[in-house]
Amino acid sequence: MKHEWRKHEKSLYLPKATPDLVEVPAQRFFMINGQGNPNGEEFAERVKVLYSMAYAVRMMPKGGVTPPGYVEYTVYPLEGIWSLTEKGRKLQELNKEEFLYTIMIRQPEFVTKEVAQMALEKVMKKNPHPFLEQVYFQTSEESLNIQMLHIGPYDEEPKSFAKMDEFAQENNLLRIEKEHREIYLSDARKAAPEKLKTVLRYRVQPK
């Protein structure tokens, strides 16, 4: 049976538009780091490279290689971990050039370092790109998070974060890092800004 994250992992990818608490399991990712405005060409190129890696794994059986434990699946959505440079934190207004980010695409459980390396070699041969050398494969730790669905432009996310902060206060939870995570359920190139759907998430622990 095909694994579809929208159907089989709703608690992680299709939350309500109100804050809630969720246990996020350890997950495997292709990741790449960057700095600067996400509206720029460099960010778009990093996204493109990540997707080329993700689809290289997804299409391996059609190329004659089926990794052990392979199951048919839908490619996971793009995610991002966001923070600011020290300079950016000191500014009175948000400067997008001071963003620090890690963008990533989750991989199924059958993807090992060996499978990731095979995908990298395949992409380097078929679609070489200088950013491919910056892609790495990593497993995240299990964590407790507050999350909610944000509907609307990215620039209006502070309204949703305010609701999440209020939820944390009410439930005696402490945010344990300044960075936050976003999961992009909409294609920003196609969807109207007011209809964009983004999962917002940050890690917490009981006070």
List the keywords.
207 residues; alpha+beta; Multidrug-efflux Transporter 1 Regulator Bmrr, Chain A; 2 domains; nine-stranded antiparallel β-sheet; GyrI-like; GyrI-like small molecule binding domain-containing protein; GyrI-like_CCH_Lin2189-like
Structure description:
It comes from Niallia taxi. This is GyrI-like small molecule binding domain-containing protein. Residues 19-199 form the GyrI-like small molecule binding domain. The chain folds into two domains: 10-25 and 143-207, Multidrug-efflux Transporter 1 Regulator Bmrr, Chain A, CATH 3.20.80; 27-140, Regulatory factor, effector binding domain (Multidrug-efflux Transporter 1 Regulator Bmrr, Chain A, Alpha-Beta Barrel). It has helices at residues 5-8, 10-13, 41-58, 86-90, 113-126, 157-170; strands spanning 20-24, 28-35, 78-84, 99-107, 136-139, 143-151, 173-175, 180-184, 197-206. The longest helix has 18 residues, at 41-58. Helix content is 29%, strand content 29%. Strands 1, 2, 3, 4, 5, 6, 7, 8 and 9 form a nine-stranded antiparallel β-sheet that branches. By secondary structure, it is of the alpha+beta class.
Summarize the structure.
This is GyrI-like small molecule binding domain-containing protein. By secondary structure, the chain is an alpha+beta fold.
